[in-house]
Amino acid sequence: MEDSALEELLQILEKSESQIFRQHILENLSGLTGTRDGLNCLLKASEKCVSVLCQLLQEENESLRESVLKCLINMTSEELFTQHVVKDIPVTDQLFKWIIHKEKLADLSCRVLSNITHWKSCCEQVVLYLQKERLEHLVDVLCDMDHHTDYHYLASVLCNLTQLSVVREMLMDQDLCWLQRLLPFTTYMGSRVRRAGIVGVLRNCCFDTDRHEWLLGDSVDILPHLLLPLAGPEQFPDDEMEKLPIDLQYLSDDKEREPEPDIRKMLIEAVTQLCATKYGRTFLRDKQTYIIMRELHKWEKCYPVLFACENLVDILIGDDPGMENLKNVEIPPELTEKFEKEDKQLLNIE
Hints:
Blueprint: H1 3-15, H2 19-33, H3 36-43, H4 46-56, H5 62-75, H6 79-87, H7 89-100, H8 106-118, H9 120-127, H10 132-143, H11 153-161, H12 165-171, H13 178-182, H14 192-205, H15 212-216, H16 222-227, H17 238-241, H18 261-273, H19 278-286, H20 289-299, H21 303-317, H22 333-347
Helix pairs in contact: 1-4, 2-5, 4-5, 4-6, 5-8, 6-9, 7-8, 8-11, 11-14, 14-18, 18-21, 20-21
C-alpha cells in the first residue's frame, strides 16, 4: 500500500460520519494487520494509525470498537505500535474497565492487554496505574468461571505483570488470598493459555526468595500444585509414598502429565527457584520431590524439558556446605560465559 493511500484511509476513519464506511475500512485494515507485510506497511505511519484507532475506541458503536480491538490485537505484536498505545492512558484504562465489568469486549481487551504487557517497557507503564484494588478485580474476573466468556488471556496478562516486583508484592499480600485462588488452574484442562499464564505467575512469584517459606507453608502450599501436573500414574513403595504431599499419593492409573512441554518446563523452573535457599532445598527433599522428577525424566522426550529436569535433580541430590542461598553465590565471569554458551547450544536441539 502506498503511503498516500494509507494516509487517505486513516483520514476517512478519523473524519467520516458513515459508520458503514468506517466499518468496511476497519475490516480491510484488520486483514492488513494479520500479515507480516501488512504490519510493515502500517509501521510507516504507526503513531497516526494507533492514534486514529484509539479515538475510535471511544465511539458508541460497539461493532466498530470490536473491529478496532481486533486490529490492535495484531498490531500490538509489534513493540513500536504498543508503545504508542500505552501513551494513551484513557484507552488502557478503558480496556481494564471492560474486563473488570465483564462487558462484551472484555475477552478481546484481555488479548490486547496480554500483548501490551508482553513488552517490559510497556508493562512498566501499565503498572503505573494498576492500583491494588484493580488487581483484586482482575483476580476476581479470572477466577469467576460462571461468566459467559473465557477471559483465558487474562492469565497471560497477570503472568506478564508479575515480571515486576511491585505486582508480585501486591499479589502475595499475606493478609489476602489472591495467589491461593489461582493455584487450582495449574491443572485446568479447559485452556492451555490459562494454564500457561497461571504457571507463569507462580514461577515469577517463586523468584522472591524471601517469600519461599510462606509459599511452601500451609498458608499457600504451592509445591503440590507445581508437582501434580508433572506426576504420572507411577506407584511408589509405601515409605516413599507417605512422604509425598497428600495430593500426590496413590494417583490413579490413568493419571496423565501436563501435555504441553513449555508448561512442564515452567513448572520445573518454578520448583527450581524454590531450591534457591537451604530451607527450600530441605523442604523439597523431605517432600520426595526427587522421585517425581526421576519418573518424569524417564518419561520426558522434549530435550529442553529434560535439561531443566536434570538441573533440578542435580540440585536435589547434592548440597555443598555454606550454600545457604544459591542466588548469592558468585560465579566467575569465564564460567558464566561458558555455561550460557552451552545452554544456548543445548536448548536449540529439538
